[in-house]
Amino acid sequence: MKQMDTEKLLMIPGPTVVPTRVLNVMALPIIGHRTKDFGELTEDTVDKMKQVFQTKNESYIVTGSGTAVMDMAIANTVDKGDKVLNIVNGAFGDRFYKISSVYKADAIKLENEWGDLADPNAVKEILDENEDIKAVTIVHNETSSGAKNPIEEIGNVVKDYNALYIVDTISSLGGDYVHVDKFNIDICVTGSQKCIAAPPGLSAISVSEKAFEVVNKTETKSFYLDLKAYKKSWDKNKETPYTPSVSLTYGLNEALEMVLEEGLEKRFERHEKLAKATRAGLEAMGMELFAKEKARSVTVTSAKYPEGVDDKKFRGLLAEKYNIRVAGGQADLTGKIFRVGHMGSAKEYHVLGTLAAIELAFEELGINADGGVSAAKEMLLK
Ligand SMILES: Cc1ncc(COP(=O)(O)O)c(C=O)c1O
């Protein structure tokens, strides 16, 4: 294999640093995926995933990235011409709209400014005017902008209508408070590589009884992502219909074990603390945060570049000189913002080191960015 620099600290909003414990179990030999041992491992992994989802709903692990389960959610519930409400305030909300369009849904886009949050009253108004809406999609944590949506409040609205509530928690589950059952989420999707801190390649989906009723009446439009096939294999043998990634399942199981060992509450508190420290640090350096104050994510922080800073130069310096990777902006925000991920297994020293490197990189680019680390330290000591 080509030698690569695998030592860089990943402070991007996924994939994230994978703990050694998780990496180690993935070196175990491959076992047959239709064996008793693997069946028990899968059952245990699903059980842990349900604890993290905080749901009693059936849940499945899918070999495929987060987009696979976003696709699965729509393919199995929406037929051609069905009305879908896609709440969009970033690139991933828009992805649900694009997927809905692929399946030829009659998709209504409820757009909000990137960096702001969706308004539950606006959702209610649209549902009142369109009683035939079959599904409402939303992204909890908009990784593209660093803003998070009020999914509990919107769930409280959607529950009074026939529509299914489909929520992407790909960059929040295991880092920010999500309670699938309390939030009335019918289909919740997530990925392995963000707050859960496993490698990329697996995803998970929880499906309520109400959603299954719709799935059973929906035309099968995807072979690999057919939920009916997943349910059948699970109900019969606690298996997946097709060959799962055995090594990644080892890793996901161990990563979920670590999430539960830390405890969900403590994990949410850690993410919130790191987010506060990152925000305080960047603001003390003179940066303007991109997401509106009321909408700020606890897993990724976005900041506007000061005038004249070149995104490629800045992030290049961070990566090549200081060995830290942060992300740039997406779509219209390319070159305008950068994003720091502080999710998964991130700790104080990752955030402090990143802020110190950001200070140094900005100074090298002629911008006085003193004081970021001190402000973050103060916040961490609170
Ligand atoms: C909120 C959100 N949704 C969906 C995705 C897509 O997931 P994947 O790249 O694993 O397919 C991402 C990835 O960054 C994300 O952050």
TrEMBL record:
Its EC number is 2.6.1.51. InterPro entries: Aminotrans_V_dom (IPR000192), PyrdxlP-dep_Trfase (IPR015424), PyrdxlP-dep_Trfase_major (IPR015421), PyrdxlP-dep_Trfase_small (IPR015422), SP_NH2Trfase/AEP_transaminase (IPR024169). The keyword Transmembrane helix does not apply. Gene3D superfamilies: Aspartate Aminotransferase, domain 1 (3.90.1150.10), Type I PLP-dependent aspartate aminotransferase-like (Major domain) (3.40.640.10). The keyword Transferase applies. Residues 32-331 form the Aminotransferase class V domain. One of its GO terms (molecular function) is alanine-glyoxylate transaminase activity. It is an enzyme of class 2 (transferase). Keywords: Aminotransferase, Pyridoxal phosphate, Transferase. SUPFAM superfamilies: PLP-dependent transferases. Its cofactor is pyridoxal 5'-phosphate. It comes from the Archaea. One of its GO terms (biological process) is glycine biosynthetic process, by transamination of glyoxylate. Belongs to the class-V pyridoxal-phosphate-dependent aminotransferase family. This is Serine--pyruvate transaminase. The lineage of its organism: Archaea, Methanobacteriati, Methanobacteriota, Methanomada group, Methanococci.
